[in-house]
Amino acid sequence: MTRERPARANSTAVARLAGVSIAAVSRAFVPGSSISPELAARVYEAARQLNYVPNNLARSLITRQTNIVALMLADMTNPLFSEILAEASRKLEATGKQILLFTPEGTQGFDQCLQRILEYQVDAIVIAAATISSRMARLCLDRNVPVVTVGRHLPGIRVHSVRGDALDGGAQAADLMLAGGGRRFGLITGPSDLTTIAERQVGIFARLKQTIDTDQVVIEDGRLTYDGGYEAALKIMGSPDRPDSLICLTDIMALGAMDAIRFELGLKVPEDVAIMGFDDIAESRQASYQLTTIRTPTRQMIEHMIRLISDRTAMDAPEEIEMPAELIVRRSTRPITP
Amino acid sequence: MTRERPARANSTAVARLAGVSIAAVSRAFVPGSSISPELAARVYEAARQLNYVPNNLARSLITRQTNIVALMLADMTNPLFSEILAEASRKLEATGKQILLFTPEGTQGFDQCLQRILEYQVDAIVIAAATISSRMARLCLDRNVPVVTVGRHLPGIRVHSVRGDALDGGAQAADLMLAGGGRRFGLITGPSDLTTIAERQVGIFARLKQTIDTDQVVIEDGRLTYDGGYEAALKIMGSPDRPDSLICLTDIMALGAMDAIRFELGLKVPEDVAIMGFDDIAESRQASYQLTTIRTPTRQMIEHMIRLISDRTAMDAPEEIEMPAELIVRRSTRPITP
DNA sequence: CTGAAAGCGCTTACAG
DNA sequence: CTGAAAGCGCTTACAG
What we know:
The structure is a homodimer of 338-residue chains. Chain A is an alpha/beta fold and 338 residues long. Chain A has helices at residues 11-18, 22-29, 37-50, 56-63, 79-94, 109-119, 134-143, 166-179, 195-208, 226-237, 251-264, 282-285, 298-309, and strands at residues 68-73, 98-102, 124-129, 147-150, 160-164, 185-189, 218-221, 245-248, 274-279, 292-295, 320-323, 326-328.
C-alpha cells in the first residue's frame, strides 16, 4: 500500500495545466496584480486540481519580505512573557506576520542566537527577555532590520525600546507601603543588569530614604522565579528585625513570597507583613493572592512595538517609549493610614 | 547625518573579495563540505569584513529544508500550553530548528491557518491546541510534511498523535475521590469535541457508576479557564445536594474552582469538598493550591513529538502514542479511608 | 579540492 | 491585460 507521492506542484505546473504563463500564476496569487478575472479563474482551478500552495521562500527571496518577526524570549518561566508572547502573536497575525521564536539559553548565547535570526531574513526582531551586544545591534542596523526591546532598555544599544516607567513604578510602590504604615522593609530583587529591575529598585529607594533609614532594608535575590521568591522570603522574614513590608520586583516572585510567608511561616498578609509586586500578571488577580502590584501595560506596549517594527526607516533614530506606571491596589497591602 | 546603508552582502560579494568561486563560499558555510582549510579561512575573512550572513531562504529553496517547525496553539490562556511551548522550543532549538507560532482564532480559522503554514514550507507541523480537517491532513500527507498532535487526538485524521491516557487518568481520579469517601460528585468540563476532555469524562464515569448513581453528578462547563472554573464551581456548589467531591477536567479550572469555593463560599478544601484536576501545571504545585491532579507528562510527550517529526517517511503509518497517566496526590483531596 | 553551470520557485520590469 | 526573460541567493551534480 505505498502511496504515490506527487511532487509538490509549483507555478510552472499550474501554468501548464491552466495554459498560461508562470507570470500569470504569480499575478493570480499576488493581491492587486493586474490580471483579468477569466485568467485568474483558470489559474485557481488548475491550482485547486494540483493542490498548489505558493512557496513563500521563493517569493521572499525576491520581495525581501518574509512576514516573519523573530522574538527572543530567554525566560519562559515568568507568566508575564507568556502573556506578551500570546498578545504579540495575536496582533502580528492580524497583520499577516508570524512569530519565529528564539529561546536562547545562558547569557553568552544571545549574539549567536541573533546571528541565526538574521539568517532567517526576518522582517524585524523583538527582544522581550534577552540581551544583544552593541556590535550585533549595529549589524541589524546596517542590514536595515528593525529591533525593539519590550519591557527592557539596553543602555548604549541603538535599538527601539518600549517599557514601563520603572522609576516611577518603584516610587509608587514605596509610597503605598509607607502610607500603609510600613517602616521595616524587605526587598526581593533579580539580576541587576536588567534595567527594569535596577530602575524599580532605584525608584523604591529614592522614596524610602525620605522616610526611613534604607541601610536597614533587607535584600535578597529571588532569581525572578516563584521558587526564588519563596526562598528569599524565608530568609528575609527570618532576620532579627522582621520586616513589616516586603516589595518584590516581579509578581511571580511575590506570589512565591506570599505562599512562603502564609503557609510556611504562618504569618498573615497584610496584617503581619504587606507584600507587593510588579507586572500585574494574571495570577496576581486570582483570589488566592489578590496581590497589590504595579501594572506593566502589556497591550499598549505591544501596540507600540508593532508600530515601531513596521517602520524600517526609523532605525536611525531609535525611539524610547516609556509607559506610565499604574498602581493596582488589592488585598496584599495595608490600607493607607492618614 | 544620514548613515550609508550597505546592501546586504551576498555570497557573490564574499567570493569576489576572497578571490574564490561562490561555490567555495557555499562550501565554507555548509558543514561537512569538502573545502581546504586555506580556502575556508579566506572565505571567513572576507565574510567577516562584509558582515556576511548566509541567506537561509535561498538555501532552503534548494535543500527543501527550512529548519522551521510550525506550532498551532489556539489557547494560550492555559499555562499547560505555555509549558509545552517552552519545552518544545528548547528541545527543537537544540537540534537547530525554530518554532514558527500560529495562534488561529475561532474554530473555522484552523484550515486557513494551515494553508498559511504550508506556504512557509515548514519541515513539520505540531498541533497543540487546535484542530485540522481530514482534507488538510491529506494535503500535508501528500506534501510529505509530518503532522503531530500533542495532548489531543483527532479521530479519523491520519496524523501522528502523542497524548496521555485520558481514560485511565479519569479512572484514577474517580478512584481516588471514591476512596476518600466521596459520594456526591460535581464535574467541571470543557468542550466535548476535545477528545482528551471527553475521554477523561468517560473514564471518570466508568468508575463512578460502579459505586454511585451517576445521574446525580452535577455537571458544569468551565470553558477551560480559571474564570470559567470559578463560575462553574459557584453554580455546582449552590445546588441543593451540595457535592462533597469536585473533579475538574483541567487544572486551570480547578484553581478557579478552589478559589471560588474557599474565598467566595467560605468552604474548606478538602474537608467540605475535595477537588482535583488534570495536567499538573506549575501553579498546581504552589502552596496556595497544592492541587491533587493527574499529570500530563509534557516532557516525554515532546520527546516523542520530536522523534515523530524527524521521520518523514513515517507519515504513511501514523503513530498514536499514549503515555500512562500518573496520579499526583497533594492536599486538595481527602486521604484514603479504608 | 575547486569552479562553471544549472536550477530551486518565484516576482517584476519590460515589451507588446 | 499578458508573456518572455532576467534574476533573487544560494546548493549541487559534474568535470577537472
